[in-house]
Design brief:
alpha/beta; globular; 39 strands; 11-stranded mixed β-sheet; Spore Coat Polysaccharide Biosynthesis Protein SpsA, Chain A; 5 domains; Rossmann fold
């Protein structure tokens, strides 16, 4: 019978159903919409689920289609250790099935479908082992992976239901280490706990996992699968044609934009991603060719999408045609060069094309410059637009207090700057030799220069410092943060910049690199601020330097009450709002908002944050409350952490006067809330709590949530003033003019503006759901963010607070505990602790088996000498049933037998305890006590015997 692609009106549709066909002889080929049903296998018997001796409890599944050149090599890699091998063939016309039967009798057939992922659910029904491992026919599983599984599987918590594997992807015979972030090349978890997953229907949509996902570490390259994905360009083009059909259909379903501009932008963006953004040039000729075909592939995706729209009559010729070939390829070039920014979903789906980037610096430079200044006023010489700031005036003939120079002529302006004056230099295009560019600036200004590398779409590079001021760098640190940081410049960015500046006193020179374009080899350590680094996580996982993370984490437990609050204030009548607020505070509110778990962040985002935490050597939360929230939310086990407090720059606020704010706005003696206007900051509850009083309220901050900003405007009475975001010195003046600073937020750690306002003399109102009490103790007025009466009472108590002695004591308390000098000192100590861990080793040997410790000691003594900071700790105690003094005697005798003086060799200790918060490396000896080390230290363990060999 015939099946037409689409049925016309009046036609009947017959659906063929194929039942009870096991597929062992030959496949039955029926086109869609055929429903194909295969006999579900019987439940495995206990004997079937018990792996044979020496075999791992893993069912390896390989899906094939004409893979006679690959299948033997693929199956040979797993035959020796997998308890079960399953091959699901899709209508191969070559010898694939015949060859597969030489390795397993579990060979099944499945009708050919375009996207393999949906067929994986069928093959999983045949698996009998607790774990299922999907391997592609063109992949090779290394022997070390089986060794890793032997160690890892017994230690996995039941909550772990999937494991993501690193891949060495090969293009034209070469392992791609950089281009396209093909390494570690994490995709959907391919090692899955049987019965706890479901593959999604479309290609590359991935798998839904019921449980947590673990990642194989990228630094263990010997565990990575070899994926010979592109042996030839012909092979790539065949795959490209196949996958582009799915990409086009996905764009059709999502109603993506389609124009000649999206075709050009997709091609340019993909090439830029493969070659520039991910350093494809480091992969040589193959890296360049991959960038070329990557751009071609993105273009083909767009072309096939255009074809689908053309078939449906949805393309208009007058809108779709470019004005000229030059215009088309000019846009390709502009996007590839970063001159035209694009917003994309997936690599080839262009969501928005931005305006061309001119040679003007990014708009945020004004605010950044203000943050870097040590003094509130002075003269400035600027080669471009004058900064939008009060207190600073253009320099005339005198030498300036500050210099802003953009472009190549900055050298001519050095003499315009006085000694000790600040400079900000900007290059409109990223220098080819960043190190040389910095050296030229440092030589000209006789100063240490700090670099600022913005987000990927910004081609500029900036340097700043103070003329004549050099720092002898004991350490160099590369700081990074999320892509929108320089546009936001909120509390997290203040923490980064102030820490960077204060570290100079600790002889630590730090640079800021959002796009990670600075030469990584020049740095000792990486310091990431926030957990939002999904775009650069693969790069961070590959970089050799240790990583510390200032988590700046807010527990998402507040998402539900935040949603309730917004829903209440959406009401139209004041009486409705008041009634609902009173019901909420008394616990009788019936809220119809999404369930709390549905308001949480997507699992993919949560997973990238967890990977960043796993990559980090140490976490630097701002308080104990934040650390507890991290442990609870991410279920952290043994993880090194050190509290590094948030802080303030005291001189800006201790010396602040109300004059500038009063002169501009005519306001004095009011309740101030300095924060972004958004639901988490809870300004609506503050406005409602004070709406029946005659107390003026000033909201100082930009609107980051449009709807919430509109609701604030709706319910504000005539005594509420919206002044927008204030520059730092004008904000300090606002603090001095205010009587109370109120921020009844849902969770703060603790809120920098509250610290700043307290230094300026304000009484403080804060919420009680975060770290506020940990920071402010008895000095603040606390309220519950969901209780309008609690907010009102706290604000009125603060308004009537005239205890000047208490406020002075509060100031002294802040100056003793919460300055950036203290933050920098704690950060620098954390850096040293982490770096020392690179040369600290620990193991639990079997002292009765010489081969478990003597090769390690010998290798250690060969690599390290006395005084270089290295330390080897060897355990002797209850866990390995050996007395420390006996272990010491054995060790000393062995060292002497090597001809080494025990008094003059690299440090070795015998310890009878398992170190807490251990930052070094744990060596597995190959002995019977390795399980103790694995259970305690997990991913910190490495096979020391391989190292000694």
């Amino acid at each position: 019978f015939d099946i037409v692609p689409q049925a016309d009106d009046g036609q009947e549709i017959y659906v063929a159903v194929c039942r009870e066909y096991a597929g062992h002889e030959r496949p039955i080929v029926l086109p869609p919409p055929t429903v194909w049903e295969q006999i579900a296998p019987a439940a495995p018997t206990p004997a079937e689920t018990e792996p044979p001796s020496e075999k791992l409890p893993v069912s390896v599944i390989v899906h094939t289609r004409n893979e006679e050149h690959n299948i033997a090599a693929c199956l040979k890699c797993v035959k020796g250790w997998a308890a079960e091998i399953i091959v699901m063939d899709m209508e191969s016309t070559d010898r694939t099935v015949e060859i597969a039967r030489q390795y397993t009798d579990k060979v099944y057939s499945h009708p050919l479908v375009r996207d393999f992922d949906i067929a994986r659910n069928e093959s999983a029904k045949y698996a009998t082992q607790p774990w299922v491992l999907y391997v592609d026919a063109d992949e090779r599983v290394p022997p070390a992976f089986a060794d890793a599984l032997r160690e890892m599987l017994p230690t996995l918590d039941e909550s772990v239901a999937g494991v993501c594997i690193a891949y060495k992807n090969y293009f034209l015979g070469k392992w791609m280490r950089h281009a396209g972030r093909w390494y570690p090349g994490y995709k959907a978890p391919m090692l899955l706990r049987r019965g706890r997953f479901q593959w999604l229907p479309a290609a590359h949509q991935g798998v839904r996992v019921q449980g947590r996902i673990k990642y194989m570490p990228p630094d263990r390259e010997e565990w990575a699968f070899e994926h010979w994905t592109v042996p030839s360009i012909n092979h790539y083009l065949r795959k490209m044609s196949h996958y582009s059909d799915s990409a086009a259909e996905r764009m059709l379903q999502e109603d993506a934009p389609c124009s000649w501009q999206t075709l050009a932008a997709a091609m340019g963006y993909a090439f830029r991603f493969y070659y520039d953004a991910t350093h494809g040039d480091r992969d040589g000729i193959q890296g360049f060719l991959l960038a070329v075909v990557g751009g071609l592939s993105a273009l083909v995706d767009q072309v096939k999408y255009a074809e689908l729209l053309l078939q449906r009559g949805q393309l208009k010729e007058e809108e779709f045609l470019p004005p000229s070939g030059e215009a088309f390829f000019q846009l390709v070039t502009d996007v590839a060069a970063g001159r035209v920014p694009v917003e994309q979903r997936y690599l080839s789906q262009i969501v928005r094309i931005g305006e061309p980037v001119e040679e003007k610096p990014p708009s945020w430079w004004h605010r950044l410059w203000q943050r870097l200044q040590r003094q509130p006023e002075g003269t400035v010489f600027c080669t471009g637009d004058f900064p939008q700031t009060t207190g600073w005036r253009p320099s005339q003939q005198e030498r300036a207090d500050a210099l802003i120079a953009f472009g190549a002529d900055w050298r001519q302006q050095v003499e315009r700057l006085r000694e000790g004056g600040s400079f900000l230099v900007g290059a409109p295009t990223f220098p080819e030799d960043v190190t040389r560019w910095r050296e030229e600036i440092e030589e000209a200004f006789e100063a240490t220069a700090h670099l600022i590398d913005p987000e990927d779409e910004c081609p500029w590079l900036f340097a700043f410092g103070w003329k004549g001021e050099k720092v002898t760098a004991r350490r160099r640190v590369l700081m990074t943060t999320h892509q929108r940081a320089l546009h936001m410049l909120g509390g997290g960015e203040t923490q980064l910049l102030e820490t960077l500046l204060a570290l100079r006193q600790q002889q630590v020179v730090a640079d800021l690199s959002v796009a990670l374009r600075l030469p990584e080899e020049e740095y000792d350590l990486i310091h990431a601020f926030s957990l939002y680094h999904g775009d650069k996580l693969p790069r961070l996982e590959q970089m050799p330097q240790p990583l510390v993370v200032s988590t700046i984490f807010r527990d998402n437990a507040a998402l539900y009450p935040v949603a309730v609050s917004v829903a209440i204030f959406r009401q139209q009548e004041p009486s409705q709002v008041e009634q609902l607020l009173q019901a909420w505070r008394t616990g009788t509110l019936q809220a119809q908002v999404a369930e709390p778990q549905l308001l949480d962040e997507p699992e993919e985002l949560k997973s990238t944050k967890r990977r960043l935490i796993q990559r980090a050597e140490m976490l630097l939360p701002n308080c104990e409350w934040e650390l507890s929230a991290l442990k609870r939310y991410f279920r952290l086990g043994e993880k090194a952490a050190r509290v590094v407090p948030n802080a303030v720059r005291p001189e800006r606020f201790l010396l602040a006067t109300p004059d500038a704010f009063v002169q501009r706005y005519g306001l004095r003696d009011f309740v101030l809330c300095a924060a972004r206007i958004e639901p988490f900051k809870n300004q609506l509850m503050l406005l409602w709590a004070l709406r029946e009083t005659d107390i003026p309220v000033v909201l100082a901050g930009k609107v980051s949530d449009a709807e919430y900003g509109e609701l604030c405007q709706r319910w504000a009475n005539g005594r509420v003033h919206f002044v927008g975001e204030l520059e730092p010195d004008l904000l300090a003046s606002a603090y001095a003019a205010a009587r109370v600073h109120a921020m009844p937020s849902w969770a703060e750690t603790p809120g920098l503006t509250s610290l700043e306002a307290a230094l300026a003399g304000c009484a403080i109102v804060v919420g009680n759901q975060g770290a506020e009490r940990e920071y402010f103790g008895e000095f603040a007025h606390y309220c519950h963010p969901a209780d309008v009466e609690s907010v009102r009472e706290a604000a009125l108590r603060a308004w009537e607070d005239r205890d000047t002695a208490k406020r002075e004591a509060f100031r002294e308390y802040i100056l003793q505990h919460y300055t950036w000098e203290e933050t920098a000192r704690a950060s620098a100590e954390a850096y040293e602790q982490v770096l020392q861990g690179l040369k600290t080793f620990f193991c639990i040997p079997d002292w009765n088996a010489e081969e478990t410790w003597q090769p390690l000691v010998r290798r250690y003594l060969e690599e390290y000498t006395s005084g270089d900071g290295a330390l080897l700790q060897l355990y002797a105690g209850g866990f390995n049933a050996f007395r420390p003094e006996d272990a010491f005697a054995l060790l000393e005798a062995y060292v002497v037998s090597l001809g080494v003086n025990p008094e003059a060799c690299a440090d070795i200790e015998i310890v009878d305890y398992l170190p807490e918060n251990f930052l070094g490396r744990v060596w597995l000896t190959g002995g019977r006590y390795d399980g103790v080390a694995l259970a305690r230290y997990g991913s910190r363990c490495e096979r020391a015997m391989d190292r000694a060999a």
